[in-house]
């Protein structure tokens, strides 16, 4: 079970007339960081991320996803004072009581049009009309970490 998202009694979206929604910001780290001289965003190694989205409700839900890389193909575009911006968008209609996943292969397909192994780090912004369960799995050559992701109601 994942933590309950922060819920505001009246959000800006509700005041502005837009339908309220839930938003999740999930970090992803994919690819190979070779040994290098100088400053690198992560230690040398191979990284992979898998993000699962589970629709636990009895109704279909439209899941909108936006990829915001801060390191793209090994280039640190988001290093201060720079910043990353949305480079790809995707969506899926998730039927009741189903799950889907996005992983490094899908991120590369959306960002580069093909598989790649260059280091790419960023955020996947997930927007849905109702609460879903989001989990991120981070792996390296030596470790695995499973993290539930809390959403916020906006």
Explained architecture:
Helix content is 8%, strand content 46%. The radius of gyration is 17 Å and the shape is globular. It has helices at residues 12-15, 104-112; strands spanning 22-33, 45-55, 61-71, 88-94, 98-103, 120-128, 133-139, 144-149, 152-153. It starts with 11 loop residues before the first helix and ends with a strand. A hairpin with a 4-residue loop joins strand 7 and strand 8. Strands 1, 2, 3, 4, 5, 6, 7, 8 and 9 form a nine-stranded antiparallel sheet that branches. Residues 1-14 have low confidence and may be disordered. It has 154 residues and is mainly β. The longest helix has 9 residues, at 104-112. The chain contains two helices and nine strands.
Short description:
The protein has two helices and nine strands; from the N terminus they run αβββββαββββ. It is mostly beta strands and 154 residues long.
Report the sheet with the most strands, covering strand number, pairing sense and barrel closure: 9 strands, antiparallel
Q: SS-based structural class?
A: mainly beta
Computed Rg? 17 Å
Please mark out the parts with pLDDT under 50 across 5 or more consecutive residues, or reply none. Answer: 1-14
Please give the number of β-strands. 9
Total DSSP helices:
2
Q: Average pLDDT, to the nearest integer?
A: 90
H and E string? HEEEEEHEEEE
β-sheet strand percentage: over 45%
Distance between the termini: 21 Å
Helix content: under 10%
